[in-house]
Specification:
mainly alpha; Four Helix Bundle (Hemerythrin (Met), subunit A); 7 helices; globular
């Protein structure tokens, strides 16, 4: 169990604490800041585990499998929490989660055929935009309402674009799948 894998596991462990901070009513106004801090720390572990694993030659099969799973768990949990609080439209949450399931399915098909689908620049941009959107929505700052709305539209657009990019580049996997 190397450091990147421990960071990945810590992200998974942080998810229930994040969800609790988002959803358990306490009447404590600063609760959103606890949720935000947990989300940011967990998001930073995503950046750190990959960087450390690649730079130190610590890439493992466990990390290849669990890192994307931990990312999806964190982001999907945040989206569901925000939707349940009416801070994010449910249809946006469905689009983003559906994209994650579709790409995961594609990756499983690819893996079954001995192909590794690397993260694309569109996928990375999607991830960053979703994290920024989630941070702004959790913080719920006194800023013009158009700013969070623009971030939601950017994250949604990049989600769809990255899905189309993955499908276009890997459609042969479906036609060749036996």
């Amino acid at each position: 169990m190397n450091l990147p894998n421990k960071l990945t596991l810590s992200r998974i462990v942080l998810v229930p604490f994040f969800v609790a901070a988002m959803l358990i009513p306490t009447g404590w106004e600063e609760q959103k800041w606890v949720a935000l801090a947990i989300f940011i720390v967990a998001s930073l572990t995503d950046y750190a585990d990959g960087k450390i694993a690649r730079s130190r030659g610590l890439v493992t099969n466990f990390g290849k499998f669990m890192d994307p799973l931990a990312d999806k768990l964190l982001v999907c949990s945040a989206l569901i929490c925000l939707s349940s609080q009416q801070r994010l439209s449910a249809w946006i949450t469905v689009i983003i989660i559906a994209r994650e399931f579709i790409i995961s399915g594609f990756r499983l098909l690819a893996s079954d055929n001995g192909v590794v689908i690397a993260a694309s620049p569109w996928g990375k941009a999607k991830t960053v935009s979703q994290i920024v959107m989630i941070v702004v929505l959790i913080a719920d700052l006194a800023i013009p309402e158009i700013i969070p709305q623009i971030l939601v539209w950017i994250a949604t657009a990049l989600t769809v674009v990255s899905l189309v990019d993955y499908l276009a580049k890997n459609i042969k996997l479906i036609s060749d799948y036996k």
